[in-house]
Amino acid sequence: MQSNGQNPIQRGRAIPSQSEALPQNIKKIAILIDWENFRKTLERAVKEGEIPRDIFTYNDTRKLLNLIKSFVEPDEEIYRIYFYLSEPPKEANWKNFRYSIDQNENFRKVYENARNFIENLKKENLVSIRKGKLEFRGYYDQEQTKPIFTQKQVDMLIGLDIAHLSYLKLVDRIMLLSLDTDLIPAIKIARINGIQVVMPSYPDVRNLSIDIQEHTDFIRKFNLKTLIKSLGGQ
To answer: Least C-beta-crowded within 10 Å: which of 9, 27, 123, 162?
Structure first.
């Protein structure tokens, strides 16, 4: 099934306290974000849409969360927003290669931006951070200015949380922000346990694979560039 996300900044409701009862038609939804995957989608949208940094940068966690909340419909309550990410290392060695933030000013800037991003996320309501690991694997170039990092454990962490949310029936729906087909087995677990799966789709930037669509209950199509530009006044 597909739904059309037309309202640019349409936010879901926050979960009420335990003493308050949810209206019968309200669905609790958990949002799971494969950050490295979603970050690349955002970078592509910003680049292709020629969107200036004063309008949007994903390091601005307030605007980033407003964007994510715009994927939620009015009849949904946000249970929690999970970010799956990895901190870059200060230094690392692999075979004959060495990496250190001290050897390149850009390396230090990337490291500091990543740390600040994580620290700012920690201060936000209803946000939970799950950390994987980045493994250094040399460089793309002979000048050693473009390090190669491989992210580990994130798919496993997402799968564990999907299983936990599903088995304990903590939510009615799970929204997954990722285009990674390796997560299909975890998506199946959610659906087998009666949890509905929602996938945002951004035809103006990147399309969902047919394999992921096959295992999704709701596909919500958005023009991501338009949504990002609408954040300029916030």
So the answer is: 123
Whether the model pTM is above 0.90: no
Question: What phi and psi, each to the nearest 5 degrees, are found at residue 197?
Answer: -110, 130
DSSP secondary structure letter of residue 172: S
* Helical H segments across the chain, by residue range: 35-48, 61-69, 105-122, 154-167, 184-192, 210-214, 224-229
Q: Find the angle CA(172)-CA(175)-CA(176) to the nearest 5 degrees.
A: 140
Residue 199 and residue 38 in contact, taking contact as beta carbons nearer than 8 Å:
no
Residue from 232, 230, 233 nearest 70 by CA: 230
Is the pLDDT at 72 greater than 70? The verdict is yes
As a whole number, mean pLDDT of residues 38-60 equals: 91
Instruction: Map out the domains of the chain with their CATH numbers.
Output: 2-17+26-233 (3.40.50.1010)
Could you read off the pLDDT of 117-159 as tens digits, one per residue? Answer: 999 999 999 999 999 999 999 999 999 999 999 989 999 999 9
The torsion angle over the Cα atoms of residues 57, 58, 60 and 61, rounded to 10 degrees, is: 160
Question: In which residue are the tokens 């599903």 written?
Answer: 166
